[in-house]
UniProtKB/TrEMBL annotation:
Residues the record lists as binding Zn(2+): H7, H9, H187, D268
UniProt protein name: Adenine deaminase
Catalytic residues (positions): E190
InterPro entries linked: A_deaminase_dom (IPR001365), ADE (IPR028892), Ado/ade_deaminase (IPR006330), Metal_Hydrolase (IPR032466)
Entry GO MF terms: adenine deaminase activity; zinc ion binding
Binding site for substrate: D269
Cofactor binding: number and manner: Binds 1 zinc ion per subunit.
Domain Adenosine deaminase: 2-305
Record GO biological process: adenine catabolic process; hypoxanthine salvage; nucleotide metabolic process
EC number: 3.5.4.2
Amino acid sequence: MPKAELHLHIEGTLEPELAFALAARNGVTLRYPDTESLRRAYAFSDLSSFLALYYECMAVLRTERDFDDLATAYLDRARADGVTRVEMFFDPQMHMSRGVPLSEVIGGLRAAAARSAASGGPQAGLIACFLRDLGPAAAAATLDALAEHAGDLLGVGLDSAEVGYPPGDFARVFSDARGLGLHTVAHAGEEGPPEYVWEALDVLGVERVDHGIRSVEDPALLWRLAADRTPLTVCPLSNVRLRCVEAIASHPIATLLEAGVNVTVNSDDPAYFGGYVADNYLALAAELGLGHDTLAVLAANSLAACLDHPPAR
Ligand SMILES: Nc1ncnc2[nH]cnc12
Ligand SMILES: [Zn+2]
């Protein structure tokens, strides 16, 4: 089934095997002796327990070639899942704070995207995410650094630890990003309350909401999302692994669909959460009983929710 993946952190596609290969190439030492022990550490209790390991493993990403290798591995994998379009997140602040120039990050990701599109693989766009726990001033400084690369970006997003960092704090930087011609999206309602989803819509003016699952707690919000056809980029396996949801069988995606919300299915950080995008669709079929027609609607929603439609091939 052709589909788009619209919620994918490229750093979250770092498989342990590649992490160790890059560590060796760059002379970086990981805290784990081998791939099995690193994999065993993927037992998360919440978002922050995951983010700590996710940020730690980024230490192995140093050069343009590393980012190219990372994105190439993901794009090859996504192609096998029927993905024709990817809008991938990356975390510029994490890389800049480690002394890795933005040009290396963006250059590597763009090179992988160009080869993928040229060889009939997924077409890829880049979304730079601000780390909300570092605050709006740091986000504004990051946007200044991103400005010279704006032509290489599709948009900006907002990620990292959610609770205590409401979207409204980032109103100015999101408005400035739009001034640079960038699309805007934001994580909201993953661990944070429905109020954060309202703020992402009404204060940030985002075009899509990432996760948004806690919207099911607020009927007026469900009505608003459905009326506006605002896409939600839902990540079922991620929600279970980070204990936002108990099991796929009780995932709020069923309620979202019943309310007429424009839902899409995505993998978030597939190397860490036990499945790529097709695994998320298959889990919904196997454990929540979604039928083929519903999966086809979800795939069609994803293609329609792309920020820039891919050029005709
Ligand atoms: N699921 C997630 N939520 C917030 N920030 C993230 N960064 C990578 N994955 C994330
Ligand atoms: Zn995410």
